[in-house]
Amino acid sequence: MEYTPLGRTGIRVSRLCLGTMMFGAWGNTDQDACVRMVRRALDAGINFVDTADVYAFGESERILAKALKGRRDDVVLATKFGEAMDPDAPLRRGASRRWIVRAVEDSLRRLETDHLDLYQLHRPDPDTDMDETLGALTDLVRQGKVRAIGSSALPAEGIVEARWTAERHGHQPFAAEQLAYSALARHAERAALPTCGRYGLGVLVFSPLNGGWLTGKYRTGAAVSPDSRAVRNAEHFDHADATIRAAKTALVEEFATIADEAGCSLPELALAFVLAHPQVTAAILGPRTPEQLESQLGACEVQLSRETLARLDALVAPGTDVNPADCPYPRPAPRA
Questions:
Q1: What is the mean pLDDT of the chain?
Q2: Residue 33 — pLDDT band, cuts 50, 70, 90?
Q3: What one-character-per-residue DSSP string does 144-185 give?
Q4: CB neighbours of 161 closer than 8 A, spacing ≥ 6?
Q5: In the annotation, is 199 catalytic?
Q6: N-to-C CA span, the chain
């Protein structure tokens, strides 16, 4: 396993990060199996684990507490706040000071720890001033409850605004950004990744397998498992739109050929692709089963040649997305 600094924090993290969105009611309901996956990842050298309060509405964090007993000091533990914890409770969400000071205590209690190594704003909150958010997060750092703070899915202009706000008001700046990036969805290369590089932010990549497309389970002529996300949430994972589905299926066949010729599996190729970007710190794995975890652990050993990267560029041009909807921050239409 390779390790690298998380931005300029001085914290060294594994280049593979274990994501736990699929732990609990949203994915694998066998908590003991989830605990075993965490421990398998740690034994493989992963020291970076990412979760969120909203994942199965706290269950993922509680599972992690069980899995990390006796090993907490060996793990860089990250969680997130901001998404709605109760659809009927408008105050239990967002990036206000009021919610942050409650949300962090809830996460600390569920995770059974006295501090978080990385506390991240899960999504931008247009209703809350960035000064309010950073002020509350800075207080958590000074209180010792949080070691570093980060954001997720901020557009490049949001990253710049957050840095400007921190410098102007003397707040703790975001140390890391978590963004979507894969060989099929490359919008982050246009602005977000260069901006992270400009400010020395650590970069965590979520959805490096593009919602399962780059696992190899969606192939031409292959039957789709009835418990897959392609069936459970077809519209979100690009299986409802026939044009997008056909385009991604054809590209997956091309990528599979490239993976075979590079001597690796398709998931390893996909993960090695995002890890090859000089701004990327770690790729987040999101396994639901032990088999999925095992299929991804070897990605750090794969080094893609310039020729292989050029072939991938020829299939999906840098900065572009096969499905425009994969970009979480579309450009607003100009005013008339």
A1: 93
A2: very high
A3: TSEEEEEEES--HHHHHHHHHHHHHHTPPPP-EEEEE--SSB
A4: 130
A5: no
A6: 53
Distance of CA 314 to the CA centre of its chain: 26
Query: What per-residue confidence (pLDDT) applies to 55?
Result: 97
The verdict on domain 3-214+280-300 having CATH code 3.90.320.10 is no
The CA distance from 206 to 280, in Å, is: 11
Task: Specify the pTM.
Answer: 0.91
Cα gap 330→333, rounded to integer Å: 9
Strands 3-5 and 12-14: antiparallel
Task: Residue 182: name the closest of 221, 212, 220 by CA.
Answer: 212
User: pLDDT tens for residues 85-135?
Assistant: 998 999 999 999 999 999 999 999 999 999 999 999 999 999 999 999 999
> Using CA atoms, how far apart are residues 79 and 5, in angstroms rounded to an integer?
18
Q: What is the pLDDT of residue 39?
A: 97
- CB neighbours of 261 closer than 8 A, spacing ≥ 6? 308
Exactly one of 3, 55, 181, 199 is catalytic; name it: 55
Tens digits of residue pLDDT in 173-190: 999 999 999 999 999 999
In sign, the C-alpha dihedral spanning 270, 273, 279, 282 is positive
SS (H, E, C) 261-301: HHCCCHHHHHHHHHHCCCCCCEEEECCCCHHHHHCCHHHHH
Model pLDDT, residue 333: 57
